[in-house]
Amino acid sequence: MNRSTRKLSRRQLLGSMTALGVAAGLGARPRAAAAQGAGSLASLGPEEAVDATIRRLFGGRALKDGAAQIKLDLPLIAENGAVVPVTVEVTPPPAAQVKAIYVISDKNRRPLNAKFVFNPGPAAPIIGTNLRLGESTDVRVIAELADGTLLQAKREVKVTVGGCGG
Amino acid sequence: MADIGNVRIRVPGSVKAGDVVRARVLVIHPMEIVERRGGRPVDKNYHFINRVVVTYLGREIAQFETTQSISENPFFAFAFKATEPGQLKVTFLDTHGGKFEGSADIKVT
Asked: Which of B43, B56, B70 to mutate to test binding with chain A, by most A CBs within 10 Å of its CB?
């Protein structure tokens, strides 16, 4: 109880620190009590621009062009933004290990779609899933290697009907 | 709705030791998206899968942190090196405390 209230006020503080966040913070402030639980707005993370997401996830670390190491399969045109299949296959440089793969859609309200974390061992850096895209957007995939190197590849997807409702 | 948490998992019938095996897994789940009323997001405990754990031979090999921007009835494909026969297990955790499991036997020849 105590912990979740502290979390909420930190979120509001963070929100009010960004220029856009002033409005967003007001919008997110609950009228009565805030919803509890892992699916409440406070734990969803802020609605933000993709630059803010990348800063939040990686700080100021440089993103290297990883087009040669990352094979990114996406449709050119997605008729239905609610189901956009993506597959990612990372071929890391020899002796390097892929620690995580991030899938980020630039124009979604909350740009991070998913984070895939691989423990050292048998897992291979190959993933596939279905994304929701709100509108035509760049989809970028960032692979984090065990030594901290960040490789990025991106592709544009044209979306005919958005997948995020309202 | 009654089917929530129904997990389907597909792996090749048999694999050679040392091969990289591709597995596909699907779970029936609404993956609720944020409602907006008058341009503002409604605050409630949205029901979606936020964590997926993959276990092989009793060891966690990967975790996926997922959000609402993954489609309804989410599907995931992943790959791993099969070293010995054993169980592949995928566990889905959602924001309402739901826990859904699916498993498959990896047969190594």
From this structure: B43
- Retrieve residue A125's tokens: 């850096």
ipTM of the shown complex? 0.94
For B41-70, write each residue's pLDDT tens digit.
999 999 999 999 999 999 999 999 999 999
Task: Give A65→chain B minimum CA distance, Å.
Answer: 23
Residue A19's pLDDT band (boundaries 50, 70, 90)?
very low
Candidates A35, A38, A131; nearest CB to B69: A131
Task: Return the structure tokens found at A93.
Answer: 């440089």
Between CA B42 and CA B56 the distance in angstroms is: 39
| CATH number belonging to domain B7-106 | 2.60.40.10
CATH classification for the domain delimited by A56-161, as one of 2.120.10.30, 3.90.1150.10, 3.30.380.10, 2.60.40.2470: 2.60.40.2470
Would you call B73 helix, strand, or coil by DSSP?
coil
* DSSP-assigned letter for residue A89: E
Burial readout B19-36 (b: 16 or more C-beta within 10 A, e: otherwise) = bebbbebbbbbebbbbee
Half-sphere exposure at residue B17, Cβ-oriented, CA atoms within 13 angstroms: 5
Q: Is B64 helix (H, G, I), strand (E, B) or coil?
A: strand
Chain B contact present for A121, CB below 8 A: yes
The residue count for chain A = 166
Contact A129 B70 (CB under 8 A): yes
Length of chain B: 109
